[in-house]
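Lab notebook, entry 244. We have the chain sequence and a SMILES string for zinc ion, and the next step in the workflow is to get a structural model of the bound complex before anyone spends time on docking refinements. Request logged below.

Task: model protein plus zinc ion, output structure tokens.
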Amino acid sequence: MKIIRDEGTATITLVATNAEETEALKNVITISKPRKKMSYGGCVGKDGGRPFAIYLHMNSRRKRVVEEFSNVTMRSTKLVGGAKLEILGTTEADDQEVRSMRDTCFFGSTGFFYLGSSDVGGEVSIIITAQFCKHCHSYMISRVGAEWKTCDACAEKCRHKYIRGTIHGGSAGNLAMGEYCRKCGRVKPELEGARKKGQIERELEVERELGIQVRWKGESPFVGPRHFAEVDRLMRRHARASTR
Ligand SMILES: [Zn+2]
Ligand SMILES: [Zn+2]
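Result returned:
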């Protein structure tokens, strides 16, 4: 899928790049109405292994499923029926877009709204947006906008009320302690010339203040920031000792 992100109109256009995607988009168009929501149905390939893809479902319903694995019973819900769209980036840039769409869904909008169909260079495409601003109803595609249902223009007019808590995204990286507005969700701007903290230092701060343990998933050989810091300290001590 070719993904065209337009910050100006706050829309994303998904363009088919092969017969399979053309068919899938046509199926969605047939059963869609403008402003109808496509639900986020998870992602695959997050930890490498296969190309990253997310799923959006139009007109699907949630079905409770119970699966038995020898002596373990798993209860979950699955999206069934309707049209399922697999969104897979064709280029490196498209791949980044798919990841950012995932973050917008996961942290904010739980899906995308269908706005209409179009034709881009002779290929079938659909136009979507993540959320509508609760103040001015304009479209939004950014994670923070979707999460707080407040567009950038309205956030600028906000009389911020900052509180301290965990923040993520942007200069905060995956996770950090910081101050954010409890009305529009925007993070308090850092003071000019403030020392930039590294991801490890930020995560250790989260552990200290909240009394929780941050755990890393994926391919890292470390359990979390504390484990990394400990190994890092030992490595430095070892390096110092061996150069003596
Ligand atoms: Zn707004
Ligand atoms: Zn605010």
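Notes for the group: The chain has six helices and 13 strands. Worth checking against the assay data. The helical segments are 19-31, 92-109, 143-148, 152-157, 199-210, 225-243.
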